[in-house]
Amino acid sequence: MPEPLVAPSLLAADHGDFLGGVRCVEQAGLGWLHLDIMDGHFVPNISFGPQVVADLRPRTRLHFDVHLMLTHPQRYVEAFVKAGADRITVHVEAEHDVAATLRAIKAAGLPAGLALNPDCDPARALPFLSEVDLVLCMTVFPGFGGQAFIPSVLDSLRQIDAERRRAGHAFRLEVDGGINVETGRQCRRAGADTFVTGTAFFQAPDRRAFAESVIA
Ligand code: DX5
Ligand code: ZN
User: Fold this and answer.
1) Rounded Cα gap, residues 207 and 4, in angstroms
2) Cβ count within 10 A of residue 87
3) Confidence band (pLDDT; 50, 70, 90) for 1?
4) Which of 39, 133, 176, 193 does the annotation list as catalytic?
């Protein structure tokens, strides 16, 4: 199973100082930065785009874990590859040929991820599990940080983790939304190994200690 890790979400940082948010992640000794890209259509919010990613790219060595919450993610893969994404995750519910989009991400040389909203039947991910490097089970309905964790997603995690083990897949199993020490522990027990956390991380008095406790 993949080594557990915490990926703070830039969505929860000060949008007037993205670089400051990056430095918080670095100073906490973490390696991944989760970048939530929102189009105001697939989700009821607009966050930031490829230019922000491109401008941050030369200023940090963090691994850019780009999460496309876009209705047409296939239209933006190239832009985020060029901007400096290190991996790209797209939603199974978006309006695209999922297999083709995953292939395009991998053809660009990047690991590809598939995201499921909390109400999505995990069976919808099964046809793609041999193609992905990461499965993201959203633990809130996407759009905003600071929402309450949805416990029913734990069952989806268990189902996907069981299939991962049965088939011998090596993809990461990521959760995103309402993740703190307690909910992170529940997700870890259900099979998650990659923890996106925004609000709880940036509001933690000791961010390094918080991140360590999420994966303890
Ligand atoms: C979708 C976003 C959020 C964010 C983390 O809304 O993907 O889940 O990353 O949000 P919190 O603040 O809940 O950790
Ligand atoms: Zn996300």
Assistant:
1) 17
2) 19
3) confident
4) 176
pLDDT per residue as tens digits for the range 140-196? 999 999 999 999 999 999 999 999 999 999 999 999 999 999 999 999 999 999 999
Q: Which residues line ligand 1 (CB under 6 A)?
A: 9, 11-12, 34, 36, 67, 140, 142-147, 176-179, 196-200
> For 76-86, what is each residue's pLDDT tens digit?
999 999 999 99
Measured at the CA of 125, the angle between CA 119 and CA 131, to 5 degrees, comes to: 150
Is the CATH code 3.20.20.70 the one for domain 5-214? yes
| Residue in the block written with tokens 């997603």 | 153
The residue to mutate among 24, 134, 144, 181, having the most atoms of ligand 1 within 8 angstroms of its beta carbon, is: 144
- CB proximity list for 149: less than 8 A, separation 6 or greater: 139, 140, 177, 178, 179, 180, 183
Which amino acid is located at 152 in the chain?
A: S
